[in-house]
Amino acid sequence: MSGSSLSVQGLTKRFEAGTVNEKLALDHLDLEVSAGQFVTVLGSNGSGKSTLFNTILGRILPDSGSILLGEEDITRQKDYRRALNMSCLYQNPLRGTAPTMTLEENLALAYTRKASKSFFAVNRRDNAYFRDLLATLNMGLEDRMKTKMGLLSGGQRQAASLLMATVAQPKLLLLDEHTAALDPGAAEKVMEVTEEIVIRNQITTLMITHDMDYALSVGSRTIMLDMGRVVLDLSGEERENMTPGALAELFYARSRRKRNG
Ligand SMILES: Nc1ncnc2c1ncn2[C@@H]1O[C@H](COP(=O)(O)OP(=O)(O)OP(=O)(O)O)[C@@H](O)[C@H]1O
Ligand SMILES: [Mg+2]
Predict the structure, then answer these.
(1) pTM
(2) How far apart are CA 157 and CA 160, in angstroms?
C-alpha cells in the first residue's frame, strides 16, 4: 500500500465575509505533495493550518480552489466519503477513540473501516495481528489489549490512536499537533512511532507542529504558512542546511512583520 499525491490549487476561504470579523484564512494557497511524501507544516497561530486541514477533510467548504487526491477531485466530495481515504489525529489523545472500550476493541473498530462496512467480532487471527502491530511500537501496548483506552497514558493513547488512524491504510494522513499535549519523553516516543508507521506504509502525510526541531528532523520537507499562503518550502540540501535556530528566526520575523502591520 502507499499514499496518494495531494494537489491543492488556489484554495481560498474567507470566514464571516462582509462583517467586521471577516478573516481571509486561506489566500489562493497552492501546495503539491507527491505520493508518500512526509511534510511538516509550521505557521503562527491563525496562519491557516487547521483551516487547510479542515478543507482537505471536507469539514469546511472552500470559497474557491481545488483539492485533488491522486487523480480524484475531492473539493466538493462529502466528508464521510473522504473519510475512507484519509485519517486525522489531533492534540487530544482521546479524540477519535472510544475511551470505555478496550484497546483491542478500538483497533477492531478502526480496522473495520478497511475490512468491511459492518462491525465484526475480533477473532483469534485479528487478535494476533493487532498484538504484532502493537508490539512494533515498543511501548508495551501488546500486553494491554484488554485495557480500556481511557486508562492508558497520554503517550500510549496517542501511539495507539496513530495505529488506529493508519490501520485502514489511508491515502493521506493529517497530524494536527498530535504530540503537543504530551510530556517531552512521550512526545519523542510518539514522534518515533509516527515516522516508523508513515515510512513503513509510505502514507502521504502532513504534520502540523510548533517545534522547530521536529519541523526539520521529521519527514523530508518543511513548509511554513503565513496569512493563508505557503511562504517557505524547504527540502533537499536547503533543508539539511537549515538549523532550528535559523528557522525560528524566519518564523519570528514573519510574526513581527504581522504585528507591526
Ligand atoms: N470557524 C471559523 N469562523 C471564523 N473564523 C475562523 C474559523 N476558523 C478559523 N477562523 C479564523 O481563520 C484564521 C485561521 O485559523 P486556523 O485555525 O486555520 O489557524 P491555525 O494556523 O490552525 O492556528 P493555530 O496555530 O492557533 O491552531 C484565524 O484568524 C481564525 O480566527
Ligand atoms: Mg490550528
Answers:
(1) 0.92
(2) 5
